[in-house]
Structure formats: structure tokens, C-alpha cells
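C-alpha cells for chain A. Residues wanted.
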């Protein structure tokens, strides 16, 4: 037994390298699963549990899948090899309905134990040979009665009704992994527990060590469910504790109160705007006004459906800050979006945006744009306007984070498309304020967010929802265009584009990639599509193109020509996904629509229907009827409810993708917690964590929780920076 087990089992034990408690070969194999410490291994829980007597459904196996199956040997045959000496052993296993072939290029070794009727676990990578699925030289362990003492001892761990099946590799089978877990878990008598005893009691949770034991070696389904609930709650509680601490730290910072003026820019804007605010916009506006009037910074997330009017709410907040003597910065993720915001804000404000200029209103400010491609002379003047305070509203990209940008009195930071910016970027911009007082922060996100994602990804922010659309928004009819099933539908789609252009409207055509020799890949390319349309179905119509490799000037010119009608058709990539507002656009054609996610499709659809004309979105696809991709498109076509589609997105996509984190790193996102399944648990953990942090902000009375929060913060920095 290693020295790690001689000490009291605590944080040191969990942090101990596996090389100190397991043999070198096993520890090396586990490193292939990114398991390096005792804690890593203990939280590598089974992905499913096979039930003794219920054999694996072999029909569900997919090629190239690493599998562990429970099956019965149906037959064993041997035959000579064709090109060299020796024999091939072929074993057919069955689940009672389907069959799977096991191929061994030797009749010697453990495979000699395989005989008709034996039941075991078989692990390997599924491949196909002459149309038959097989595992080549699979690792296996027989579970039925045997006279071999070594084999009997190995099977003892799986003597219960529930057989744990772990995420495994070719070098480390599920049962070898289970044996390693037993070696590490067996000697432990206690573990540090981040969930306070009072919280665990109130939630009816078992202890941490007991939960790990039943999850890795469940006596029955009830105990397993209780153990998993305990570990999931712990994960939610620790995460929410850190988010609660962040909220508390933000709330404790000083901020300059920014109170609305009775007769200023905001009042002038409200008098001249040609539309009424929705009740939801008025309600959120009151929330924001109340929070910006306090002496601590606002940190609020605003989300809502496409076209719900988030920009108007943000502009009113910015005008209130300017009225109070401060400045507002709007941070956008791309130059196209920053330029669109700049045009949109100036258009809405009119003479209110032309302070000191001919035709400017008596009460006005300046709205300036700063991006990486801003010309040098214009950049110098813009920096002077920002530093002097002459520019009340500053729109920009990451260029706003430059040290050269110094604000006169930054009072509000509006961040558009939050998932593309991290906490650090927000903090950098906040520090551009000239005093210790922090600016207020309003985060806009372009799509509705399921409740659990709002509580985790945006857990350090208060949340507001715009759940009403302004009057006058035209519903967008959405249709799937199945190219393989009905190729003439695509011809009709191009005819519809011509009809809309003839009526004076605009059309977007979106492609999944740009396309040329330097960008290999599958899917319809923008360059090929534009050329095909110019020479074919849209001949005679001026087409513009816009994509991410164009210069900022060229992109801006293309967008301007499209908005003005000089090029009524725009062939684009997803640079037009958010923020683009062209009221004359009435048709959106999405090529290879199955290559886009639900949220992206909903965003793209939101680029049309912004004026009075009836609008249509056409989802072109080669996905066959009945496929998951086609079902996703049919669901988008069936509803324009962004909140319903957000839940669908959560159901269909990996949660890590929705959280904005890569899945390549095992510890980069959630371990056991499911944002869809564990809604009630996350709600409870959030409330308990908030109460714990409120009573003990420094967690001095909860050292185990403090240690776990520190570990999680270090391991999941990428996840939390996107929070």
C-alpha cells in the first residue's frame, strides 16, 4: 500500500497521483483517459449500468464505436489463415436477437475459455468486414460460473445485478478500470466534503464517500439513484457557490449612480421615437434604471427572442448614463456587427447623435465607432473624442480593450453576444474607467436561454427576459427544401427570390463556408453559389457577397449596397447571423441548413420579417426524410417560438457546446450535471449556495467547500471565464 493511503484520507489523497497508488502500467493506461489523480479516477463514474440477465442490444452498435457489451457466446469456430500459418478463431456472440462476430488471429491465450453458452463482457472497437460487424481481438471477461480461481476472483466484482460500464479505451477496458477504482476506493475511510452537513441534511443527501461507493458498486437501483443525485448536487452546489461569490464581490464594488434626467437625451429620444415600447421593454427599462441609480454596479443579462427589441432597451440605458454625465461603450464581437450597431444607433437617434455638428439637436451627443480597421487619422480623432467625453456612446470591437482607449467617465458597458467574450474582457473594459468606481454592465445575448443555462453560464448576472415582440413584426413562414426528395423545390426557391426582388425587396442567401483551394471541406460554398446564381437562376440581378475574409471596408460597402438596394441579393456566410437590420429583406435562403444549429437557424431567420412585407425562410437540405438532421429542420420550420427552440437546442446538442466550451478537455465543462435533466436540483443548489455564501462570504467556516471551489476554479478556468 502506498504512502498516500497511510495518511488521513483528505485533500492530499484526492490530489495524489495515480502512480503512487496503482502499478505503473495501469496508471499509464488511465492517463489516456485524462485520469491522473485519485480524485480524477473516483469521479470517472460509469456511463451506464448493464443489468445481469439483460444482454446488450447489439443492433444499436455503430462502426468505429468503442463498446463494452454483455452477450452470450453462440458459436466458436476455427479455420486456417489464408496467407500465413496459424488459425483464426471466430466467436459469434448474441443478445438473443442480433449477433456480433469476435475475431482472434490465434487460438491460444484467454480466448480458449470461450465456449458456447458462456456469458461475458466483451470490449473493443466496432468495425465491419464483408458487411458483418465485428470486434477484432476484443478484451473480455466471463461472468458465469467457472472453475478457474483467477477468473472467478475477477468476476466477483460483477456479482451483483448491476454491472458498471465505464468510459474506456482500447488500453483500459471497463472492468480493468473498475478494478482500479476498487483499489483506490477500498482503503478510504473518509473524504473532505464540500457540502455542509446542514445543507446535506436538508436535501436528504448521503455522504460523499458513501455516494462514490454506491455509484461505482451499486447494490440496487435505489441506492444508485441516491448516489448519483448526491454527486450531481455537489457539482451544482460548488459551481453555484463560486458564482454566488462573484455576485457578492461585484455587488460590493463602488459605482457612480447614474440617474435619469427629467429633460435630457433620453426624454428627447422617447418623444421622437415612432413606436411604442412593449410592456416587457418598459418593465426591463425600469429594472435597469433602478439598478444604475444605486452606488454599486449593475450586472444584468438581457435576453429575448429575435426581434424583441434588446437594442432599444440598451440604447435607452446608454442615453440615461450620458444624461447623468457619463459615457457608454457597446462592445460587439465582429466588425460587421459593430458597424451595424453604429449605423442603427445613429439612425434611431437622428440629430440627437450629432452634437456640435450642423443640424444637430440642442441636446445631443456623439456616437463613434472604433474597430481594428479604423483609419489612423479617424482613430486619433475618435480617441480624443472618447478621452474628452465629447463622445457619449462608443461602439467597437476588441479594439475598445486596447490600452490606448481611455474614457473620460465610463458609466455603462453594454456587451453584445456575451458567449464570445469572457469575464476577463469585461473586466479589462471596466478598468478603463478613470476612477475606482466600476461601470454598470448590461449583457445582451441574441437568443432565448433555457433557465438552467441562465443560472450556470450567466450565473454571476441578474437576468431579465424580453418575452414580447414589438407590434408590426411580420411572422416568417419557414419551409424545408428537400433537394434529394424534391429537386424542383429548389428551382421554385430561386423563382421566389426573383419575385421578391422584383417587388423591391431584398434576399439573403447564406452558405456554410466560403470555399476555395485554401478552405477544403464539405457543404455548399459561398463562392460557388454566387457564381452559379449569377450565371443561372438569378442572372441579371446584382449580387453582393460578404464573408469573414473580406476587409472591413469591403464588408461595410457590401452591407451598405445591400441595405440601399444596389445589390438586392446578398450571398453571405454567418457574418450576417446577428445584428443585421434591413427592413426590406423578405427572404432568407439557407444552403445546407442541416449544417447549422437550431439557434443559428433561428438567428438567420430573424434577419427577415423586420419590415411590413410578408417574409419567408427556406431551409435547403440534402438530409433524408426521417434523419435526425431533417427532424431538427422540421422542428425549426414548425415554430417561431425562440424559447421553445432553445429547449430543443438543449435537448439535441451536447450541453458543453451550448455552454460555449470545447468537449476535448474532460474537466472543461460539467462532469455529471445535466442542464436539461437536473433543473430542480440546480435551482435548489443555487439557493443553498447563495445562503451559504451570504452567511460566510470568505468561506472561512467551510474549508472543504473553499478548497473544492479553488480546485474547480483552477481546473475549469475556461468554463468560468465564459460564465
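Reply:
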Amino acid at each position: 500500500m502506498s504512502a498516500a493511503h497511510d495518511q488521513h484520507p483528505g485533500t492530499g489523497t484526492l490530489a495524489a497521483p495515480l502512480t503512487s497508488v496503482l502499478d505503473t502500467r495501469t496508471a499509464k493506461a488511465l492517463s489516456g483517459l485524462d485520469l491522473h489523480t485519485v480524485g480524477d479516477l473516483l469521479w470517472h463514474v460509469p456511463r451506464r449500468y448493464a443489468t445481469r440477465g439483460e444482454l446488450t442490444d447489439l443492433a444499436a452498435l455503430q462502426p468505429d464505436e468503442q463498446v463494452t457489451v454483455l452477450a452470450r457466446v453462440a458459436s466458436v469456430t476455427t479455420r486456417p489463415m489464408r496467407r500465413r500459418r496459424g488459425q483464426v478463431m471466430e466467436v459469434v456472440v448474441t443478445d438473443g436477437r442480433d449477433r456480433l462476430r469476435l475475431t482472434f488471429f490465434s487460438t491460444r491465450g484467454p480466448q480458449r475459455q470461450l465456449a458456447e453458452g458462456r456469458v461475458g463482457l466483451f470490449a473493443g472497437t466496432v468495425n465491419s468486414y464483408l458487411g458483418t460487424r465485428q470486434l477484432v481481438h476484443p478484451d473480455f471477461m466471463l461472468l458465469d460460473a467457472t472453475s478457474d480461481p483467477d477468473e472467478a476472483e475477477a468476476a466477483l466484482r460483477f456479482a451483483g445485478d448491476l454491472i458498471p460500464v465505464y468510459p474506456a479505451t482500447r488500453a483500459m477496458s471497463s472492468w480493468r478500470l473498475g478494478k482500479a477504482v476498487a483499489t483506490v476506493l477500498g482503503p478510504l475511510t473518509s473524504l473532505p466534503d464540500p457540502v455542509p452537513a446542514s445543507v446535506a441534511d436538508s436535501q436528504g443527501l448521503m455522504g460523499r464517500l458513501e455516494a462514490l461507493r454506491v455509484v461505482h458498486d451499486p447494490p440496487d437501483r435505489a441506492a444508485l439513484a441516491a448516489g448519483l443525485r448526491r454527486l450531481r448536487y455537489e457539482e451544482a452546489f460548488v459551481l453555484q457557490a463560486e458564482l454566488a461569490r462573484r455576485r457578492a464581490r461585484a455587488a460590493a464594488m463602488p459605482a457612480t449612480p447614474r440617474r435619469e434626467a427629467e429633460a435630457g437625451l433620453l426624454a428627447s429620444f422617447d418623444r421622437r421615437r415612432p413606436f411604442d415600447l412593449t410592456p416587457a421593454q418598459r418593465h426591463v427599462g425600469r429594472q435597469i434604471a433602478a439598478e444604475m441609480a444605486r452606488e454599486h454596479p449593475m450586472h444584468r443579462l438581457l435576453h429575448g427572442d429575435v426581434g424583441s427589441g434588446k437594442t432599444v432597451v440598451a440604447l435607452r440605458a446608454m442615453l440615461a448614463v450620458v444624461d447623468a454625465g457619463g459615457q457608454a461603450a457597446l462592445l460587439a464581437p465582429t466588425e460587421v456587427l459593430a458597424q451595424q450597431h453604429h449605423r442603427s444607433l445613429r439612425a434611431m437617434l437622428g440629430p440627437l447623435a450629432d452634437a456640435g455638428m450642423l443640424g444637430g439637436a440642442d441636446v445631443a451627443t456623439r456616437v463613434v465607432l472604433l474597430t481594428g480597421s479604423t483609419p489612423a487619422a479617424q482613430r486619433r480623432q475618435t480617441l480624443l473624442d472618447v478621452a474628452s467625453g465629447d463622445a457619449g456612446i462608443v461602439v467597437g470591437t476588441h479594439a475598445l480593450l486596447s490600452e490606448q482607449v481611455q474614457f473620460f467617465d465610463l458609466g455603462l458597458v453594454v456587451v453584445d453576444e456575451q458567449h464570445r467574450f469572457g469575464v476577463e474582457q469585461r473586466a479589462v473594459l471596466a478598468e478603463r474607467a478613470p476612477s475606482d468606481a466600476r461601470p454598470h454592465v448590461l449583457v445582451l445575448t441574441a437568443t432565448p436561454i433555457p433557465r438552467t443555462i441562465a443560472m450556470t453560464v450567466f450565473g454571476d448576472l441578474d437576468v431579465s427576459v424580453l418575452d414580447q415582440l414589438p407590434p408590426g413584426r411580420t411572422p416568417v413562414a419557414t419551409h424545408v427544401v428537400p433537394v434529394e426528395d424534391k429537386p424542383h423545390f429548389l428551382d421554385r426557391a430561386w423563382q421566389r427570390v426573383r419575385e421578391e426582388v422584383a417587388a423591391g425587396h431584398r434576399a439573403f442567401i447564406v452558405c456554410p463556408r466560403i470555399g476555395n483551394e485554401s478552405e477544403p471541406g464539405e457543404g455548399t460554398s459561398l463562392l460557388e453559389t454566387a457564381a452559379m446564381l449569377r450565371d443561372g437562376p438569378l442572372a441579371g440581378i446584382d449580387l453582393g457577397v460578404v464573408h469573414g475574409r473580406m476587409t472591413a471596408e469591403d464588408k461595410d460597402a457590401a452591407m451598405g449596397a445591400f441595405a440601399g438596394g444596389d445589390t438586392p441579393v446578398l450571398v453571405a456566410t454567418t457574418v450576417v447571423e446577428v445584428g443585421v437590420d434591413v427592413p426590406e429583406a423578405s427572404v432568407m435562403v439557407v444552403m445546407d441548413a442541416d449544417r447549422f444549429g437550431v439557434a443559428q437557424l433561428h438567428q438567420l431567420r430573424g434577419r427577415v420579417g423586420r419590415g411590413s412585407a410578408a417574409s419567408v425562410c427556406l431551409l435547403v437540405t440534402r438530409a433524408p426524410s426521417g434523419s435526425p438532421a431533417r427532424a431538427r429542420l422540421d422542428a425549426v420550420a414548425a415554430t417561431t417560438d425562440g424559447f421553445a427552440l432553445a429547449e430543443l437546442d438543449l435537448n439535441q446538442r451536447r450541453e458543453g457546446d451550448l455552454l460555449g466550451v470545447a468537449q476535448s478537455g474532460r474537466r472543461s465543462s460539467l462532469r455529471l450535471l445535466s442542464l436539461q435533466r437536473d433543473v430542480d436540483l440546480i435551482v435548489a443548489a443555487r439557493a443553498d449556495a447563495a445562503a451559504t455564501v451570504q452567511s460566510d462570504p470568505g468561506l472561512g467556516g467551510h474549508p472543504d467547500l473553499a478548497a473544492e471551489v479553488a480546485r474547480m476554479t483552477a481546473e475549469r478556468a475556461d468554463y468560468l471565464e465564459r460564465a
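Residues 1-11, 656-668, 718-723 have pLDDT under 50 and may be disordered. Residues 54-165 form a domain with the OB fold (Dihydrolipoamide Acetyltransferase, E2P) fold (CATH 2.40.50.140).
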